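Retro notes (design track)

What went well: tokenization of the new backbones is finally stable.
What didn't: we kept losing track of which sequence belonged to which structure.
Fix going forward: every design gets posted as structure first, then sequence, in one message. First example under the new rule, 185 residues:
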């Protein structure tokens, strides 16, 4: 890996840090309108709301109010909501908060990474089934789908267990879905 690249883990970590910092300092709990990363040589990070796109080209309204064309290089890392790694921008939803890594020139961003913004929450399971459940959190209900249960809690969940979840919220309907689930250490 070259000096200007970051690992997927570091990219996700920086995204999570941005979500926490914004909630604390910019618009209150739950907002993701900021990013705490620093430029990595010729690459920088931006946060904004996805407007539209298909294939490897789209537009994003950045937090400074400007609109940027985003052109993804071949082989870019794209991670969307509940789908995970995707090959094009068709999966992204207008209004969805995203983080972009790339180089900006003349209002356009040549991006090597683009991903949905995720938030974190904790909860205690009140009711469960073998396949899925809905968790009641301070921020509202979070759906924990069967796929997440099978992948991360194959033994199931029992009433009273505490969990930390990585959550994506669909801007179309406000439904929050857990894409990651772990017992706090």
């Amino acid at each position: 890996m070259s000096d200007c690249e970051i690992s997927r883990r570091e990219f996700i970590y920086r995204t999570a840090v941005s979500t926490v910092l914004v909630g604390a300092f910019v618009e209150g709990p739950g907002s993701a309108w900021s990013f705490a990363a620093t430029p990595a040589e010729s690459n920088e990070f931006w946060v904004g709301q996805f407007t539209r796109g298909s294939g490897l080209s789209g537009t994003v309204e950045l937090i400074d109010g400007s609109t940027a064309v985003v052109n993804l290089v071949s082989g870019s890392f794209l991670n969307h909501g509940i789908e995970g790694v995707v090959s094009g921008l068709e999966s992204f939803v207008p209004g969805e908060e995203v983080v972009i890594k790339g180089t900006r020139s003349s209002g356009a961003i040549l991006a090597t990474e683009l991903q949905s913004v995720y938030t974190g929450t904790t909860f205690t399971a009140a009711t469960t089934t073998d396949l899925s459940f809905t968790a009641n959190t301070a921020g509202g209900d979070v759906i924990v789908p069967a796929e997440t249960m099978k992948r991360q809690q194959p033994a199931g969940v029992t009433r009273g267990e505490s969990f930390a979840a990585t959550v994506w919220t669909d801007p179309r309907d406000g439904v929050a879905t857990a894409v990651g689930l772990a017992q706090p250490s």
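Added context from the reviewer: Residues 8-25 form the longest helix (18 residues).
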